[in-house]
Specification:
The complex is a heterodimer of chains A (233) and B (304). The radius of gyration of chain A is 17 Å and the shape is globular. The model of chain A has no long low-confidence stretch (mean pLDDT 92). Chain A is an alpha/beta fold. Helix content of chain A is 39%, strand content 26%. A six-stranded mixed sheet of chain A has the order 6-7-8-3-9-10, sandwiched between helices. Chain A has two domains: 121 residues, 3-Layer(aba) Sandwich (Rossmann fold), CATH 3.40.50.300; 66 residues, no CATH class. Chain A has ten helices and ten strands. In chain B, helix 6 packs across helix 7 and helix 10 packs across helix 12. Chain B folds into two domains: 270 residues, ABC transporter involved in vitamin B12 uptake, BtuC (Orthogonal Bundle); 25 residues, no CATH class. The C terminus of chain B is likely disordered. With 304 residues, chain B is mostly helical. Classes of the chains: A alpha/beta (233), B mainly alpha (304). At the A-B interface, helix 2 and helix 3 of A face helix 7 and helix 8 of B.
């Protein structure tokens, strides 16, 4: 459903992504693993429309996204859990969720709201609270819930584990696992290879802007290079 | 009790309350800092002056034209906000203000430095509103209308979308908010309402001159919004009443008006960025503590 061909992204003279090609199939969960500065966030931002690639193509359901602004991509079924959450801090949890479903009709908003409250009961308890007063873990849950409100066909997740306590990392990844079980297509970019490989069908390894490896979680776990660099030997 | 002097002050305060509230839609709701609001004030005033003096239309036609035309110009002048953000937008809006004043000053059609004079007073069914309590009532009716629109925007879906643009443009786009459209809406609505205020001003004074709408006036209006409490409804109203009426009580301060606005602006930015009546300002928190305590304790009793 998502096909990326030979994507190049520059920041000034810095070549952030080199000829990156990858794909995500229907109902597949895919991870892009890499260290800090490998180009993971650049990749996600390019898919969402926050960054403009200098060449290459991004096809979503066989339609090129290249010239579309972010809100048009949302219309076509993309939703993003941004790095750091990027919540609307001054407004309530419920309003953040409603905004997540900004393009949906009222009936859908209500049913999606029930769905995310079931997935994250803590958010139901905190509906009226201002988003920035939530704890770090709760904010991350809200960021995921807000993206789910859009009824995405493909969920993009940027560094969801960053800055979270290990127990919360486990909780967040178990939610991602649940979503995958339900048949949601997911692309996540992560530093945490260990947890990511537990919940995805396939993964790519990104190093200095190049895709250097691709495989199933089992294949990657066996790979000595991955073991050394990302799984702690 | 309503002598001419009091009425004059009340008319001015009403006009500047409208101006501050209209700027608040742009700055407080949509987060687009503008240092050019006096340009819209002026475009409204001149539109109304041209309509009535040059084309012999009534005040009401002038008012309507002022609102419409200023709204359209606002939408067009809002276009730079789609390309530039923050400090660059501030500079762009400032530039717009200078250009608009220069056009008034150097284009003969607008009367040059001599302005346009002999504007008619509004009248309805043969009753003239000039200078009287009726005009004051009309101005405050308009201020009420601007307040109503501000309130409506703050409560609706569109207001929520404007909020997201202010808080985080990229995140707004990523939930599906068409950011450029809402920026242009904000510019158009904000400008249109300032244009209406311009019409009321022009017909009260009876003449328009370019320098009334100069850059310093933009600063004054922005000061009212910021000092009162940006983003709230009460803040800009309070700020406009305070800054517009204070010089009347402190006559000696009249000449230093803009210096005082500037100094206040700096002090507010340093010590109370949310404004005197902003949501987490000292005054507002104190007020809430005093007035809400009985209600809070009642709730506590219910809960226990």
């Amino acid at each position: 459903m998502l096909h990326i061909h030979d994507l190049d992204v520059f920041y000034g003279h810095i070549h952030a992504l080199h000829q990156v090609s990858l794909q995500v199939n229907e109902s597949e969960a895919v991870a892009v693993l890499g260290a800090n500065g490998a180009g993971k966030s650049t990749l996600i931002k390019s898919i969402m429309g926050w960054e403009k690639p200098s060449s290459g193509q991004i096809l979503f359901q066989n339609e090129p996204l290249d010239r579309l602004p972010a809100w048009e991509r949302v219309k076509r079924g993309l939703a993003l859990v941004p790095e750091g959450g990027r919540l609307f801090g001054d407004i309530s949890v419920a309003d953040n969720l409603r905004l997540g479903a900004y393009l949906q009709p009222e009936a859908v908003i209500r049913s999606q709201m029930d769905m995310v409250y079931e997935l994250f009961p803590v958010l139901a308890e905190r509906q009226k609270q201002i988003a920035k007063t939530l704890s770090g873990g709760e904010q991350q849950m809200l960021a995921i819930a807000r993206a789910l409100m859009a009824c995405p066909r493909l969920l993009l997740i940027d560094e969801v584990s960053m800055g979270l306590m290990p127990i919360l990392v486990k909780r967040v990844f178990s939610v991602i696992g649940e979503l995958r079980q339900q048949g949601m297509s997911i692309l996540l970019v992560e530093q945490n290879a260990y947890e990511s490989l537990k919940v995805v069908d396939r993964a790519y390894v990104l190093e200095n802007g190049h895709i250097v490896l691709e495989g199933t979680p089992d294949e990657l776990r066996q790979n000595p290079r991955v073991r050394a660099a990302y799984l702690g030997g | 009790m309503f002598n001419g002097y009091v009425i004059t002050i009340a008319v001015f305060v009403g006009i500047w309350v409208s101006l501050a509230l209209s700027l608040n839609i742009l700055v407080g709701y949509a987060g687009q800092i503008s240092l050019g609001h006096a340009a819209f004030f002026g475009i409204g005033a001149y539109t109304s002056a041209v309509m009535t003096v040059r084309y012999g239309q009534s005040f009401w036609a002038g008012l309507l034209a002022a609102i419409l035309i200023t709204g359209i110009v606002g939408a067009i002048l809002g276009l730079p906000s789609l390309r530039v953000r923050h400090d660059f937008l501030v500079l762009a809006t400032m530039g717009v203000n200078f250009v608009v004043v220069a056009v008034f000053k150097y284009v003969d059609f607008f009367g040059g430095a001599m302005g346009i004079v002999n504007l008619p007073a509004p009248s309805l069914f043969g009753v003239s509103f000039r200078g009287g309590a009726l005009y004051m009532a009309l101005v405050w009716l308009y201020a009420g209308f601007v307040l109503l629109i501000s309130w409506y925007l703050s409560k609706t879906w569109a207001g929520l979308a404007l909020n997201t643009v202010r808080i985080d443009e990229d995140a707004a786009a990523a939930v599906g908010v068409s950011v450029p459209r809402f920026k242009i809406y904000a510019f158009a609505i904000s400008a249109a309402l300032a244009g209406g205020a311009g019409s009321f001003y022009a017909h009260f004074i009876g003449s328009v001159f370019p320098d009334t709408f100069a850059f310093v006036e933009s600063i004054a209006i922005l000061s009212m919004v910021i000092i009162g409490g940006v983003g709230t409804l009460r803040g800009p109203i309070f700020g406009a009443i305070l800054l517009k009426s204070a010089p009347e009580f402190l006559r000696f301060a009249q000449d230093y008006r803009f210096t005082i606005y500037g100094a206040l602006l700096v002090l507010m930015m340093l010590f109370q960025p949310s404004g005197l009546l902003g949501d987490d300002s000292w005054l507002w928190t104190l007020g809430k503590r005093i007035f809400r305590r009985p209600a809070a304790s009642m709730q506590a009793e219910e809960a226990s």
